[in-house]
User: Which sequence fits this backbone?
């Protein structure tokens, strides 16, 4: 077990020293298992202009069990529901202990640029995505401007 | 924190040495990100993991952690070469890193004489682990041949050192602080170094109470391995046993040596260690996997008792403990130098302690109801002021709202 928390320390250290481009993941205060994540939307996706916040929690059994990740920013995406829960195979049955925080966050970023309406979590969004993709993407851009931007502004306001 | 956990990582190598980074990465287990401890290779997909890591993974899911191909424990095979490679790499790593650092410093400082001076000052301090017993001091010139030969000498001494570490752990009953050395202890000695160990092994056997027919056995000399013909029956007998053999040969008794003695002489360090733990009366039976749902709590408790592991807690706790014990035991059996079962029991206790601790302290904030209540009590004042603010804001629009509405009119 001490070996496992050592692995977490190592991952934190690596994330700090060699961060994934466009992603900042930091443990919250004194809890090494609970992370606050800020993720930039991938370029050439409806989410490109937004910076999204997520929370990530490593269960006691990590890395035998996957981390729990959730969007805190409201998202218009067929694989992300209104509670921010993410439908991603490696967070569920395709998890492997050889994966790590870095790979999980990269996969989530990739999910933003490649929505999969055939395996939906938010049914209405997926339906919209299938019937009228152009309009769905418009909505996603709108939501990004509405909610993701505001997250950034709020942070600036707090700092001031 | 840094003193507790020495975080070694492939990124310790400078950017200018990508191959060393890669090699460092390759010698690490994909699951725990540490150097392989008792490397096991999977027979169908060929991936390598620490024995304990892969066994823990397989209790969770019977798939290869790297490629998710179906995998069972019977498809794991020890990979001794990796163990030896890791051992050698680890012993050279710190020294090499320190020398890279001093070389970089030397190239930085302009005056040549000045740099040499600083090298000899900082050298021994930095390489305190790498050069534990080598003869070189402050040798900043990377002379490869010199380095190779000294590293060999160092490996030998480190192997001796780990042997004595193990003995200390076996003999000292209550000392829990040694558990950090576990990984070193489990390392395989490089195959070529076995011979140099033998001399120390015969010393080791003095360490243990002798249960054979030689109550006052003196320390055998190095030449005691040589065989000499018996003057009576011409049979080749080892020099150390010739007097005993001759006594029995002349008396017409069986000259067949008792098995424990002959086994000890032939066996490598593993057997010596097993015997050491036997004399400490701590050999525990090999556990088998159980179908827990078919066992009552009472029956499971009895099984744990028979296995010699703690029986406290409810069924769920006992089940988790048994699973971990099977993994620890089997991984230890895979190791080329297994540790004593007493040490294994300590690791089991440490595992259980670590498992119990996070439940109290490192759950995310406000996970339990008690936390919520505590949080509410702590911030009652700020909640109250926030509520007041919100009410004020809600009250205001009622007054202000009519104005913009009336303006357009």
Assistant:
């Amino acid at each position: 077990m001490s070996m496992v928390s050592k692995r977490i320390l190592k991952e934190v250290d690596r994330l700090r020293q060699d961060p994934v481009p466009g992603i900042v993941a930091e443990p919250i205060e004194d809890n090494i298992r609970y992370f606050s994540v800020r993720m930039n939307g991938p370029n050439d996706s409806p989410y490109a202009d937004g910076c999204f916040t997520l929370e990530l929690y490593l269960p006691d059994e990590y890395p035998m069990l996957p981390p729990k990740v959730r969007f805190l920013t409201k998202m218009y995406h067929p694989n992300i529901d209104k509670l921010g829960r993410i439908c991603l195979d490696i967070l569920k049955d395709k998890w492997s202990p050889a994966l790590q925080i870095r790979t999980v966050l990269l996969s989530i970023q990739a999910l933003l640029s490649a929505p999969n309406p055939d395996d939906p979590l938010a049914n209405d969004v997926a339906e919209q995505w299938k019937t009228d993709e152009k309009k769905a993407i418009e909505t996603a851009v709108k939501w990004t401007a509405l909610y993701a931007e505001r997250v950034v502004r709020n942070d600036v306001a707090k700092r001031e | 924190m840094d003193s507790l956990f020495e975080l070694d990582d492939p990124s310790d190598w400078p950017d200018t040495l990508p191959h060393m980074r890669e090699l460092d990465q390759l010698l690490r287990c994909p699951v725990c990100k540490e150097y392989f401890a008792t490397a096991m290779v999977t027979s169908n997909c060929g991936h390598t993991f620490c024995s304990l890591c892969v066994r823990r993974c397989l209790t969770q899911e019977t798939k290869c952690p790297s490629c998710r191909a179906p995998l069972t424990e019977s498809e794991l095979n020890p990979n001794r070469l990796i163990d030896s490679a890791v051992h050698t790499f680890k012993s050279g790593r710190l020294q090499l890193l320190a020398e890279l650092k001093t070389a970089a410093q030397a190239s930085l400082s302009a005056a040549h004489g000045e740099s040499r001076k600083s090298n000899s000052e900082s050298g021994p301090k930095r390489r305190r682990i790498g050069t534990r017993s080598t003869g070189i001091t402050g040798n900043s010139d990377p002379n490869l041949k010199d380095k190779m030969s000294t590293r060999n000498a160092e490996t030998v001494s480190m192997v001796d050192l780990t042997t004595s570490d193990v003995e200390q752990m076996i003999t000292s009953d209550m000392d829990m602080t040694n558990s950090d050395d576990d990984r070193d202890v489990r390392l395989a000695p490089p195959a070529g170094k076995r011979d140099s160990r033998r001399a120390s092994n015969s010393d080791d056997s003095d360490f243990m109470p002798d249960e054979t027919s030689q109550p006052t056995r003196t320390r055998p000399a190095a030449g005691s391995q040589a065989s000499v013909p018996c003057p009576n029956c011409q049979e080749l007998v080892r020099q150390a046993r010739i007097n005993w053999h001759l006594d029995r040969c002349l008396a017409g008794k069986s000259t067949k040596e008792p098995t424990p003695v002959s086994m000890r002489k032939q066996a490598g360090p593993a057997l010596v260690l097993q015997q050491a733990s036997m004399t400490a009366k701590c050999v525990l039976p090999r556990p088998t996997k159980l179908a827990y749902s078919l066992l009552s709590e009472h029956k499971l408790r009895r099984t744990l008792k028979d296995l010699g592991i703690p029986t406290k807690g409810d069924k769920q706790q006992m089940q988790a403990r048994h699973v971990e014990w099977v993994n620890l035991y089997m991984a230890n059996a895979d190791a080329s130098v297994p540790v004593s079962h007493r040490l294994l029991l300590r690791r089991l206790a440490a595992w259980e302690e670590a498992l119990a601790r996070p439940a109290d302290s490192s759950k995310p904030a406000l996970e339990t109801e008690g936390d919520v209540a505590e949080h509410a009590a702590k911030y009652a004042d700020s909640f109250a002021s926030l509520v007041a603010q919100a009410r004020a804001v809600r009250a205001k629009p009622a007054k202000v709202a009519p104005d913009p509405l009336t303006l357009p009119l």
